[in-house]
């Protein structure tokens, strides 16, 4: 039993934050899928997906411009 308490004591931030982040993203999806709150024309991806797409575009542009200059 002491090992469980040690684990909880050392990782309490992660034990709280991971379910919180999952819950927030789940709530985002549920709100986006409910047409009472969001029209089909106004739906957005998850913020993490939007960020990943922007990062991919940034990296792609960064590497494509460096190849064009060579």
Overall mean pLDDT: 87
Question: DSSP strand (E) fraction?
Answer: under 5%
Poorly predicted sequence stretches spanning 5 or more consecutive residues: none
**Shape, per Cα inertia axes:** flat
Structural domain tally: 1
Q: Percent helix among the residues?
A: over 70%
Taking the alpha carbons of the first and last residues, their distance comes to 62 Å
Order of helices and strands: HHH
Strand element count: 0
Count of alpha/pi helices: 3
Main β-sheet description: none
The secondary structure category is: mainly alpha
What does this structure look like?
The protein has 70 residues and is mainly α. The protein has one domain. The protein is built from 3 helices and no strands. The protein has helices at 2-10, 12-33, 47-69. It is flat and about 55 Å long. Keywords: Membrane, Transmembrane, Transmembrane helix.
């Amino acid at each position: 039993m002491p090992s469980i308490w040690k684990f909880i004591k050392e990782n309490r931030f992660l034990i709280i934050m991971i379910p919180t982040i999952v819950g927030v993203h789940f709530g985002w999806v549920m709100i986006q899928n409910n047409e009472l709150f969001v029209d089909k024309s106004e739906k957005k991806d998850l913020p993490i997906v939007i960020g990943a797409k922007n990062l991919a575009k940034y990296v792609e542009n960064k590497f494509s411009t460096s190849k064009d200059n060579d």
